[in-house]
Amino acid sequence: MSPRELPLLLVRHAVAEDSHELGDEARALTSEGRAAFRHHARRLARLTPLTGIVTSPLVRAVQTAELLCEAFGLSSVEVHPALVPGSGAHKRIVKLAHQLGPGWALVGHNPSLERAAALALDGEELPDKLRKGMALALRPLSDKAFTLAWWAAPGRPVRRPGDKR
């Protein structure tokens, strides 16, 4: 697979605790969320190779990224401030996606990732809501836009544009 054929993955963190005594940033993955995403990450690794993973610094995203790292046989993940949720995060995420290019996974949060996907797809409609643990595979169309190649959520089949529901 040439680098241009590799997708860029937008990955929402897996199922996490509802709350944590240290605050939202410290919420970790549940044991069920960890197990389901570990299985899902192995399935993703069979679909495409990755060259790197960047993640939000929030605990649940870092833990999700570490599971991806393990499944893809990579040595480390990089924490990146562009993936911190908040105002304007979707624009920072799309800018980072263009900077990194195909072969990277960006692990983050909703609604930032969902908004980033909508912006990156330049009007192409998202096929589903971005569920916890879901990966969207985007292929570059140009220096400014991507197209949706496929998407996959834990415990659900891989879907492609044009698939019947």
From TrEMBL:
<dbReference type="InterPro" id="IPR029033">
    <property type="entry name" value="His_PPase_superfam"/>
</dbReference>
<dbReference type="Pfam" id="PF00300">
    <property type="entry name" value="His_Phos_1"/>
</dbReference>
<dbReference type="InterPro" id="IPR013078">
    <property type="entry name" value="His_Pase_superF_clade-1"/>
</dbReference>
<protein>
    <submittedName>
        <fullName>Histidine phosphatase family protein</fullName>
    </submittedName>
</protein>
